[in-house]
Amino acid sequence: MVLKAFAMLDKSGNGSITVSNIFAIYDVSMNPDFLERRATKDQILGAFLNNFEGPRGNQDGTITLKEFCDYYTDVSMSTPSDEYFVRMMESTW
Predict the structure, then answer these.
(1) Which H or E run contains 53?
(2) How far apart are CA 49 and CA 68, in angstroms?
(3) How confident is the model over 33-90, as pLDDT tens digits?
(4) Which pLDDT value is given to residue 57?
(5) Per-domain residue ranges for the chain?
(6) CATH superfamily, region 2-92
(7) What is the mean pLDDT of the segment spanning 22-32?
(8) What sign does the CA torsion over 26, 27, 33, 37 have?
(9) How far apart are CA 35 and CA 29, in angstroms?
(10) 20 near 10, Cβ under 8 Å?
(11) How far, in whole angstroms, is CA 23 from its chain's centroid?
(12) What is the pLDDT of residue 72?
């Protein structure tokens, strides 16, 4: 599921995800920072991507397959079952 989600986001097939890959997918229009003009769409998308880098990432705005897998490895540890994880991934991506 994680590999499938990454492949869907990595439209160029270059092995990384950037703001341009999620620009049309991730809607920031209801984000409080966007609504109150504290952050631009690009800033919010960049911050969103940085979440996937976590403590092991370099916060460069580019998510590699390894960083994406590491993120979801951590997430999977807090899910009650594999079935729940699959449903979560399907509803997210």
Answers:
(1) helix 41-53
(2) 10
(3) 999 999 999 899 988 888 888 776 677 888 999 999 999 999 999 999 999 999 999 9
(4) 67
(5) 2-92
(6) EF-hand (1.10.238.10)
(7) 88
(8) positive
(9) 7
(10) no
(11) 11
(12) 93
**Angle, helix 65-76 to helix 82-92, in steps of 10 degrees:** 130
Residue 91 CA to residue 61 CA, distance in Å, equals: 24
Measure the CA–CA gap between 13 and 33, rounded to whole angstroms: 31
Q: How far apart are CA 60 and CA 3, in angstroms?
A: 21
Q: How many CB atoms lie within 10 A of CB 31?
A: 17
CB proximity list for 77: less than 8 A, separation 6 or greater: none
Sign of CA dihedral 37, 42, 43, 47: positive
Q: Which residue type sits at 48?
A: F
Identify whether the C-beta of residue 19 lies closer than 8 Å to the C-beta of residue 50.
Answer: no
pTM for the model stands at 0.80
Alpha carbon distance 5, 2 (integer Å) = 5
Neighbours of 68 (CB within 10 A): 21
